[in-house]
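Anyone up for a design puzzle?
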């Protein structure tokens, strides 16, 4: 049995935090502000680059009227080196191959801006697996608004049920609001304990994902 599966990107398919940290701290250096440690910036990730920069501004008590300028500066730094330190999580490529062999249609729904998202996917040889990529600036809205996920599903030729794979509270809320089963990858950028994040199934090893998808699809078929 096949499914149409959307994936979050940062913290789900790839560990991009080091490149996000580098771009953010280059921006801060440019305005004469002390850099932030990786663990601090990790807490700001999840709702897209503008929200990350907003949180950095509040953290350093900078003027909010700099938000647009500092967001663009951070994006420029990130675009210049968006895959230098980013790595694919273990087991992702094999899992994607197995899911495609099962007949699944795959796509990406990320709050990262679309251009750097596509660059990361290309640079890390992930792009050929996905039929659509919608970023945080592809629409007028982004996750956790379910319209972002719904538009991602609409951008592909669907097969079977719709599923969403992500790593965060934002992803879980998006799936809940879109009323689709949510697969929580536990080794990403979540801020809460696993048992506090609503999910259909959680996993910490991508090698397990194809089997879990098959189990959930079988259960859905039996309950239909």
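Challenge accepted. My sequence:
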């Amino acid at each position: 049995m096949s499914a149409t599966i959307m994936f979050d990107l940062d913290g789900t398919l790839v560990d991009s935090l080091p490149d996000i940290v580098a771009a953010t701290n280059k921006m801060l250096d440019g305005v004469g502000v002390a850099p932030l440690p990786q663990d601090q910036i990790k807490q700001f990730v999840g709702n897209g680059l503008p929200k990350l920069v907003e949180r950095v501004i509040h953290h350093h008590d900078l003027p909010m009227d700099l938000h647009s300028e500092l967001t663009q500066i951070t994006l420029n730094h990130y675009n210049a080196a968006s895959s230098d330190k980013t790595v694919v999580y273990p087991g992702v490529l094999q899992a994607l191959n197995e899911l495609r062999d099962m007949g699944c249609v795959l796509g990406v729904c990320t709050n990262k801006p679309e251009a750097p998202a596509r660059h990361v996917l290309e640079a890390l040889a992930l792009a050929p697996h996905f039929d659509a990529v919608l970023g945080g600036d592809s629409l007028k809205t982004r996750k956790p608004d379910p319209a972002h996920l719904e538009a991602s599903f609409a951008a592909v030729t669907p097969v079977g049920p719709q599923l969403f794979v992500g790593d965060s509270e934002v992803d879980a809320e998006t799936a809940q609001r879109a009323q689709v089963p949510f697969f929580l990858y536990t080794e990403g950028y979540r801020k809460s304990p696993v048992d506090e994040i609503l999910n259909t199934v959680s996993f910490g090893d991508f090698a397990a994902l194809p089997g879990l998808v098959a189990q959930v699809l079988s259960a859905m078929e039996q309950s239909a």
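A detail worth pointing out: The first strand starts at residue 4 and ends at 7.
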